[in-house]
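To whoever picks this up:

The nightly regression suite flagged Ribose-5-phosphate isomerase A as changed. Nothing in the input moved, so I suspect the structure step. Input below, exactly as stored in the fixture:
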Amino acid sequence: MDALKRQAAAKALEHVRDGMQLGLGTGSTAKHFVDLLGEKVAAGMKVVGVPTSEATRIQAEQCRIPLTTLDVIDRLDLTVDGADEVDGALNLIKGGGGALLREKIVAAASDRMIVIADETKWVDALGRFPLPVEVIPFGLAATQRMMAKAFAESGVSGQMVIRKGKDGHVFVTDGGHWIIDAHLGRIADAPRLAGLLNPIPGVVEHGLFIGLATTTVLAGAQGIRVIERR
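Regenerated output under the current build:
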């Protein structure tokens, strides 16, 4: 599986050109992309990156990839990131690694977003993977009630679990928030659910990435498949 992820990352790297401003994703597949990009930079390629997490920032610095922020530049040419699920419309569930807020900010500031994944992430409909929702700890029960109402209105329901870290304590994001993982099963209308979650005051961001990915690179036993958004 790791070899497949690296193949997808290598294919995405073919889209990177000298002088580009890049969003650098987070997670096991994106990690391969950052490593491979670091090799290109060492060989003389000139790029600048905006990392989507502290973990990616540390990795990029170790790879000697020049970094900047969206306070310094206003637009990115391309973001390359992984996903937990991708559907036929290239809508995504992201946030399994806990970086969904920064990932979405960076993706939205990019002209293009290439998603790199192994073929197991391709689904007919989103929702088999629990939907991460980044929330403010204050008023959590009220936020969960409003989330449950949004789920019902979009025809889904399921258990909401506050994410814990490996140490057993509540997982805290880079932004200082908590994550609720909603086990919803099949989400028939992901854009509608995204629209219902957006206005909830306690929801900082959710892991439904609608209309952001332009290309998906899937690596499988039969080779690489590239899908462009229609």
